[in-house]
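hi! just following up on the protien thing from before. the input was this:
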Amino acid sequence: MASGGDELNIIFVPYLSPGHMIPMIDVARLFAAHGVIATIITTPSNSLLFQNSIDHDINSGHKISIHQIQFPHAEVGLPVGIENFSTLTSPDMAPKLFYAVSMLQQSIEQVILDRKPDCIVSDMFFPWTLQVARQLGIPRFVFHGSSYFAQCAEHSVEQHKPYLNVESDMETFLLPELPHKIEMMKLQLMDFMTPADEFSKFMNLIKETDKKSYGTITNSFYELEHDYEEYYKRVMGMKSWSMGPVSRVVNRDASKKAQRGNKSAVGEQDCITWLNFKEHNSVLYICFGSLTKLSGAQLLEIAAGLEASGHQFMWVIRKRENDEDPWLPEGFEERMRESKKGFIIKGWAPQLLILDHPAIGGMVTHCGWNSILEGLNAGLPLITWPLFAEQFYNEKLVTKVLRIGVSVGVTEWTTSYDGQKGLVRREEVEKAVALMMGGGREAMEIRKQAKELGAAAKKAVENGGSSEANLIALINELKTVKQGATARDKFNGE
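and the predicted 3d structure came back as:
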């Protein structure tokens, strides 16, 4: 079983979506920086997203590598290069990619069995890795790319079904037994929470597999979600190690921040040069993540609201393909360029680099957990605009528990491919921007709290911090597990 010597050999199996893949790669790099031999299994196009970062780590003496497995383009009918959910150009590609991911199982299993690692760290969407770990007699950890709060809130909904006690989709209900008073509407629940469809069954399988695993690795830190980390362990009965914010640990200098994820649609220096001419805390950053593509009608409302607010902004735009609706007011780009009030990025942005610039004073976020943590790392207040997955839960954490943001007013859960249901009107956009970027008392209190949590995030990953201590403790525990297994193997004559 496993590798020889005292070094730990861990295999990481990330899912093929940026929100899952990028933080898990950071986790692998974090382990490698602490002397672990880390191997990442992924496909050729996905490896290009982080190859530069891995090469940098290798040159720094870290034992980390990528093992590529072939992607079944021809078998599922996807163009060469489409290997990640962020690269899909139409919704009808999604089922093909889901099927392709399922076809990777045998190849991944074989790599793990051949390499005989000491441990597997697997994305939640690969529950079958538990069986491989059991076959090898090694620990399996599950990586969740979400907050403790979201998992606890979802558990409360599943256990108590409070949505059954309301008469309409818009009526609010209380999530029972959580440490804070959290109210939601049925419209804000994920689709698979109520019907017994195939995806619901798959999510139930994931949760059962999580309980049977050695534990979970979570991209959070104790000072941020301590009430919900305790709930997760005590009420839900899960073992977990908080190691975040992982992006802060392994992407400290500007070059690493710029290289993280896809290639930027604009020159990094162009962004920084534009921001260098702005006053501190004067620019609002707007981004809806790597998957969401909004309708032309919604983009038009956002543009009008931003312009009406009078505040400066940097806006990352991903528009739906084949949407013929007008998506910017006439002359908008020219006015923003001439007035230097707005900077538009059509595609991937060097987000970590931008958020750390002192000119950025706030962020509009879809409430994906990575984006929240990246904004929090920079000590930024947030305007919340949730759309799908666990994002409505995360919004409650931001606005009701941490109190570092305000809601733009989205009320209905959707899918990443639909963009959203209904429109957030320009008046609501203007109102939220004016509140957050203005100098009012509420905005100042939110900004102060965000700065304090940003400082706590930095402290958590430094020497002696809670997340750094968790990482070292887990590595030592896994070495003990390995030594015990090696001793048993020798005793049994293996």
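The chain has two domains: 9-249+461-491, 263-458.
Confidence is low (pLDDT under 50) at residues 490-494.
cheers
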